[in-house]
Sequence to fold (897 residues):
Amino acid sequence: MTGDADIVLSIENVAVRFGGLLAISDMTFSVREGQIVGLIGPNGAGKTTAFNVITGFLRQANGEVLYRSTSLRGLKPHEIAKLGLVRTFQRTSVFQERSVFHNVLTALHCQGRSRLWDILLRTPREAASERALAEQASNILRFVGLTHRTDEPAGALPYGEQRLVGVALALAVKPSMLLLDEPVSGMNPAETARFIGLVEKIRDSGVTILLVEHDMKMVMGVCDNIVVLNYGRIIAEGPPAEIQKNPEVIRAYLGEGKKKRA
Amino acid sequence: MTRFTPWLFVAALATVPLWMNDYYYLHVLITTGIFIIAAMSLNLLLGYTGQLSLGHVAFFGIGAYTSALVSLGFKVHIAPDTVVSLSPKPVWFAILCAIVVTGIVGYSIGKLSFRVRGAYFVIVSISFAEVVRLVALNWLELTQGPMALNSIPALTLGFGDYTISFLRKPQFFYLMLVMAVVSYLIVARLVNSRAGRAMIALRENESLAMSVGIDVTRYLVLATVVSAAIAGMAGALYTHYIRIVDPNIFLFIYTVTMVIMVVTGGKGTLAGPIVGGVVFGIVPEVLRGMKIVPEVQWIVYGVLMIAIVYFLPEGIVPAVQRALASGRRAFAGLTILTESKAEEK
Amino acid sequence: MNQLLQHLLNAVILGGTYALLGIGLTLIFGIMRVVNFTHGELYAFGAYCMYALVMRLGFDFFASLLLAVALGALVGAVIELVLLSRLRRADIDTTMLVMIGAWIIMQNAEQLIWSGVALSITSPFPSNPLVLGPASVSWTRVYVFVVALLLIAGTYFLINRTKLGKAMRATFQDRDTAALMGIRIDRIHTATFAIGSSLAAAAGALLGPVFVVQPTMGDLAAAKAFAVVILGGMGSVPGATIGGFVLAFAEELGAGYISSGYRDAMGFVLIILILLVRPTGLFARKERIG
Fold:
């Protein structure tokens, strides 16, 4: 059936120390090609920390993170991005002062190459390269549905649209796996529904997705598989239907010691 | 219209030596111009890449000393029995050496200094400049220390009968103008390119920049190298203009002057250092005309700097741009109003 | 050997004042995150106060010291209230530039008032040095050392045993939580800047009679203060104390055995080395995140 060759991201026994605390004690899960996986858990469970350690913003104290069988240990964030594993941010997900177009153009950094000589002499090669990038930027904006905001400063957009810009930035890096950090926070139901469509469109274009979210409806609706994190360890893993009925998960969200009605 | 205004400005400046007979004012323009070149280079690092490097005068001074030493020749004992010497070289070669050497220094400093960030980086940059100053002051064999290197030759270009000597002020003014335009173009092209976008990204949001694949260290170092090389070139120009150089060229107050020019003019804008340079090049002259002592002059600088930081925190150029933009909007609104009124009639 | 002893003794004496300078700055740097360019000017201010009080107005030497320290605190508080309080939420560049502006204004004001002539303050101590075996030290320097230690001890007491000190430590550790717990952050800032400035003024008032007083004396003092802060780690008072002595030893031994011209470079070289090898300083406990 599905062998290990199918696994895109593999987290094995990862532990992370953060500010003197053991934020993640023992995390193990994996994501397969073409899946949309949701990482959920109560507040403070360590979800964003997990993202940070996977993408190189934090060092793991223990364990291995493997992306397509390549160990990510010791790699810097920009190196990991170049491998195809790209993340978005929950807060400050855009370059606030710059226009949306300029944001995406900046994020297309890896799709260009420029030598100092070409830049300084404004050679035709450089001009052609810039035109190609501009075209790619327009395409990406069309893909996420932000063409009408092209020239506006990203920071001036409504919060929900800023999250879309964040996704556009990540797509510009041409990921083969996308890590979305609370992508629909601040979105109303209509925007959330549109976003789900976008996520599926991205998956259909061949990108594997791991997302962190609090919006349970969205998560249960769009994910193939769900991983539940609590107190720094995975307490459950499986399809949405199973997770919803899992007693440990329910307990984690509602808290221990809930008084039974007499 | 706006595309050509910079060139008009340059053309206007080019006429100055033709009508300005007072060599003193020409001298002020030349030294201000050289400082503006240095300020433009600082703007690349401080304004566009967002790094508070307060050791910039070190690059300026290293450029000055390198060019002076290469054009004068030198002989030093780096060990009791080992002598390193160089015979005097033509000035244009010395200036090129200055640019290259300063660029290499910028590269090394960049690679080392950016291991620390924030306030610590500020302190490292100041410390580096101070160490260089103390070396220039104490390594008498190489630099003559406080007794200065003098009789530095002026730049001459050409072959045989067709040589230009940039000794006198009018000729040097044109040299300065050309180098200023070249520096401006280098900075302008760099910041509007992919590399420039990476640098600006670093300034705006470093984590986000990393997440889209931008190698932070690489672009910080690139900004430092280009910035240093241009500052070194300015220093070399200065040394072949004044034709004497001493360790005072490394004083922190010169870094402060450049920082004031960049920040008050508008950091992260191309015109900022120029506007700032003009203000802080002209203001002391005005004050001198009013017979004000240097101390009061500096106090005025300090007050001005604080005032601009409080009231125009982005600098003069962005404030003017915003005023023009709202003026344009008001004008557009007015036009629509009058047009609709005309239609009603 | 005798030379070594003399150097060590000099270093110990000097270390006390460097520690004083450093502690003042590390408090400001640590709690307020401000690159305080006026620290050196407060040092000079302390020295000029002593000159004015002792030589011009004929005040008692020791009373003048207390007055200079108090005035230093006052000037510090004024700087904080007038310039910094409005910049609490500004970025580090802005604050830095304002501090540079203040430094320019203060130094040139001093130059204007007193002119650049080096002034000297006569100390009431006998001019015969105290001889300790093969080494000797002037009585004035002994006095400087003793007072510096007293002030350092006083600062420790303030930081660790008083309510204000507790509030300062809380603000340093976690500003937001401290604010939530009812600590008036703006008052803490003013107090911190005033205390730090008073320590700098104290160092200046103590060393004024030892060296000469001139307008640029603050620059070198500031540089050394920064070196001490970096050695000890930003915000660490024990670190600054030890750092002060480390710098003094490095300078004395470096000047004695390498070259006296590069003595002042020692501080800078140490800064660069430390920051490149161990960026958080020798003693800092606060971890860097990310």
About this structure: Residues 22-314 of chain B form one domain. The radius of gyration of chain B is 22 Å. Residues 6 and 320 of chain B are 16 Å apart (CA to CA). The longest strand of chain B covers residues 74-79.
